[in-house]
Amino acid sequence: MLKASVSPVVSSNYLKYLSPRSYPFLSHYHHHHQQKQYRALRTTTTTTFTFSKPPTHHPGPRTLTSSLFLQRNSKTSYITTALLLASITAAVVYQQQSQQSNMSSKLIPSNPDDVMVIRDVTPNVVTFSVPFLRFGRIPIGGRGTAVKLTNGSIALFSPVALTESAKAKIASMGNDVRYLVATDIEHHIFLSQWKSAYPGAKLVGVEGLPEKRAKAAPSDPQIGAEPFDVVFTKENKLGLKVDEDFDRDFEHEYVDGHANKELVFLYRPDRVLIQADLMFNLPAVEQYSRVPEAEKPKPGFLERFFMGLQSTEGDAKGMKRFLWYMASKPDRASFDESVRRIQGWDFDTIIPCHGETIVGGGKAVFDKVFEWHLNGKN
User: Fold this and answer.
1) Where, if anywhere, are coiled coils annotated (predicted)?
2) Prediction pTM value
């Protein structure tokens, strides 16, 4: 049995721990909460889980503490919050020590060429969209983006599987791949595959990623230990250059305050913002559009709950809360500074790794989603 005591007020990095893989093991949960009034409402929630099959790497009782802040006037119900905290805590227990090798083998569709959607977003920007189930349960999709620079070379962001169709598309763009960019600490699995096919390309990533890949390489055939040519850090991010040709066409911002260490790019000629997990735009309609209807995933309640937190529809309140309390928690001040710099760019289209591409009106959507980080949270 696992007991988790959750005291909401200060959140930690939940982004990588929100793991519905744990849900099959949850056969029961019970929660109660006591209310105390301060300047804001503080809730103490105790959640008890009974596992029908205890995770092998966490035997016996284990107590964890997580947190989440609730304002007095928040519309989030206590039951919904309890469910969210339950899923987060179970995720911490079941997945915190999972190996990258176990994850990457699940990121490759068995038939990627059959289900990949290749789309010309602009004459110079092409996306490669594929199905992807986060933690094997949540259909968030995956997307790589290729950009043809004004000098004719190609930059590839967040590479997905290098299929024959993808190779043919790159060839039609001139085949001169000079940059392979891992847009955060997570979107890197296929770098080695692309680097092998285009050995002259520079590898671009964030601090911590080279070490992460080197550690995973011995046990994961998908991941190599190739050296990175450009590594963004919190200290160098404002002055770092990729090279003259790349910087002529792109603005870039390293959002070190985000839990996943995000790299965001603006392709100035076409006013296209390219990013990975800074913001989702679920559901992932395009990314599952070539999957046979009978094979499409059927999300359950908790999966739909998470997806609702990653939608830009309406007032996007769920996404605002997710960004405020979870994604930006590592360093909200730095996160806010990054968001303000990005907001100052001139873009109209947003390409996320997960969910629908926003063609037209992207700046207004960005302003809505990041309202609290731009204007302050009332």
Assistant:
1) none
2) 0.77
